[in-house]
Amino acid sequence: MWAIPTTHRRGCLTAVLAEVAKIAEEHNLLIISDEIYDRLVYNHEHVCVPALDDATQKRTILLGGLSKDYAMTGWRIGYACGPAEIIKGMVRIHQYTIMSAPTTAQDAALEALTNGEEYVLQMVAEYDRRRRFILDGFNRLGLTTFEPHGAFYVFPNVSASGMDDETFAETLLREERVAVVPGNSFGPGGEGYVRCCYATSYEQIEESLHRMEKFMNRHG
Q1: Best CA proximity match to 176, nearest among 207, 145, 154, 203
Q2: What average pLDDT does the chain have?
Q3: What pLDDT was estimated at residue 170?
Q4: Helix, strand, or coil (residue 84)
Q5: Mean local confidence (pLDDT), 133-144
């Protein structure tokens, strides 16, 4: 499995994905494409892996769901698309290990997919507004933050505070009651960063940035 940086524009990203597809073909590998954030994309067009070409499609399992795109977290509705023989094997395992999705959740998913497009577009626009606001806020506070082009998280560098990511997260929570996730939770490459989610109200983000400004004035 590969993680492709979302900073690539469509042409460059397509070329990177084509290289992944080439490696998979050379070594007879399957590609698992996690598309859970496929609609929450900003400033560029999303590239779907199995859409590259027919050969790639035949070796790709696409995983998706309604938790993010349609704000249905907790409904536990997802899907897998792929070659028929692989999906058939997945169904055999699934039907004996996991109960089926509740009827109410299936009905809600059908309604979301059929009539939810207008609301998805509104949600993405609002997330984009929050994204730009929190990004500008962190950079203004000296917490250097790379611009994310997908999902609803930012990953500021906290080295300006003089603390490592765990100390920063714990001290910020204790002193200002603002919760962030230490970057090392995501592996060694995340050390020195924290993950912040902007899937909350604009007002909550505004208040959090205000508290973090006070925090950085003491520790920055």
Answers
A1: 207
A2: 91
A3: 97
A4: helix
A5: 97
The pLDDT assigned to 94 comes to: 85
Average pLDDT of the segment spanning 184-213: 96
| Cα separation, 154 vs 144, whole angstroms | 10
Task: Please report the beta strands in 100-214, taking only residues with DSSP state E, as ranges in sequence order.
Answer: 153-154, 181-182, 194-197
Q: State percent of the chain over pLDDT 70.
A: 95
Packing angle of the helix pair 202-219, 117-140 (nearest 10 deg): 20
- DSSP string computed for 29-73: --EEEE-TTTT-B-SS----GGGS-HHHHTTEEEEEESTTTT--T
Report residue 4 CA to chain centroid gap: 12
Return the percent helix, strand and coil in the chain, to nearest 5. Answer: 50, 10, 35
Cα separation, 76 vs 66, whole angstroms: 8
What six digits make up the tokens of 44? 């560029």
Sheet holding 78-81, edge to edge: 31-34, 60-65, 78-81
- So what's the pLDDT on residue 196? 97
Q: How far apart are CA 92 and CA 82, in angstroms?
A: 15
Provide the 10 A C-beta neighbour count for residue 220.
14
